[in-house]
């Protein structure tokens, strides 16, 4: 299971610090789990699955898909979590700038992006 914790964390683009912070534990806890020094408790596995939409069967056995089939809201939340934890400062600035625009300007940006995408 330790390898899957590391694989999950990397798939989310999170450092051990960030992964632990989102789960309310220290980097040391994450390090010990990933190194196999401490097996994760059942409650912690549940927390990981609930927080990140992880398929519990996958985390425990390696079978199936890493993530549960998420609805659009949960998938968007996970994407926001990944962006927040990333080093892509341009994307973060762009998202903040868009969010602060007036409705008219947001529509202009959407129209521009649709043109770029060929829609």
| Ends distance | 44 Å
| H and E order | HHHHHHHH
Helical content stands at 55-70%
Number of helices: 8
Q: Taking Cα atoms only, what radius of gyration do you get, to the nearest Å?
A: 18 Å
Number of strands: 0
Name of the CATH class of the largest domain: Mainly Alpha
Descriptive overview:
- The protein is an all-alpha fold.
- It has 2 domains: 1-87, 434 Repressor (Amino-terminal Domain) (Orthogonal Bundle), CATH 1.10.260; 88-119.
- The chain has helices spanning 2-11, 16-23, 27-34, 42-52, 56-61, 72-85, 89-99, 103-116.
- The N and C termini lie far apart (44 Å).
Give a nutshell description of this structure.
The chain is mostly helical.
Topology readout:
Elements: H1 2-11, H2 16-23, H3 27-34, H4 42-52, H5 56-61, H6 72-85, H7 89-99, H8 103-116
GO molecular function, one term: DNA binding
Organism: Butyricicoccus pullicaecorum 1.2
InterPro entries: Cro/C1-type_HTH, Lambda_DNA-bd_dom_sf
